[in-house]
Amino acid sequence: MAAKPVKVQIVYCAECGYEPYTIALANYLMIEFRDQLSAIEIIPWQDGSFDVTVGGELVHSMYREGGFPDHETIANAVRAKLAATEAPTP
User: Fold this and answer.
1) Mean of all residue pLDDT scores within the chain
2) Most CB contacts within 10 A, which of 5, 8, 28, 30?
């Protein structure tokens, strides 16, 4: 059975000009996962933030890890979450 689609949330600092990276990451995930994502939520924020949550789990925080995440790092987090939601075949 197919995995349950997961939601990705990207919170970025709008006043810092992080939009290009945010849009590039969202685009990468849309192409990579297509219908395996239930949503990609993009939230403009402030204070230098750039946080990515996959299925409710924080997988990258600029405050914690520093810098922007590699796109493949986020894709691997999505793959792991999808694998965890797969229903076992009887």
Assistant:
1) 93
2) 8
Distance of alpha carbon 89 from the chain centroid = 27
45 lies in a domain? yes
- Tens of pLDDT along 62-79? 999 999 999 999 999 999
Q: Is residue 32 included in any domain, yes or no?
A: yes
- β-pair type (57-61, 6-13): unpaired
Give how far the C-alpha of residue 42 lies from the chain's centroid of Cα atoms, to the nearest Å. Answer: 9
**d(Cα 33, Cα 55) in Å, to the nearest integer?**
14
Which residues sit opposite 13 in a β-bridge? 45
How many domains does the chain divide into? 1
Q: What share of the chain is helix, strand, coil (3-state, %, to 5)?
A: 40, 30, 30
